[in-house]
Write a structure and sequence with these properties.
The chain is an alpha+beta fold. The chain has 4 helices and 3 strands, in the order βααββαα. Helices cover 49% and strands 22% of the residues. A 3-stranded mixed β-sheet has the order 1-2-3. 6% of the residues are buried.
Length: 69
């Protein structure tokens, strides 16, 4: 993953996005701390689709934990 200072990421946003799409996640750093990540839409969709819904997971595996709604 590449790192970008916030100011640099703002000034070069098109490049940050291009690199996110072509090279992978781009980390945004503020005051020496990683605060955000820019990822391509394909990576976002992969992560979103692969994330289990905790309530649905527990309801399907543990009848005692089912929500009443």
């Amino acid at each position: 993953m590449s790192g970008w200072q916030v100011h640099e990421a703002q000034q070069r946003f098109s490049e940050v996005v291009r690199r996110a799409v072509n090279e992978g996640p781009q980390v945004v750093i503020r005051h020496g701390e990683e605060v955000a990540v820019v990822i391509g839409i394909a990576e976002y969709r992969r992560l979103k689709d692969g994330t289990p819904d905790f309530n649905r997971l527990t309801a399907s595996t543990h009848p005692d934990c089912r929500s009443s709604w």
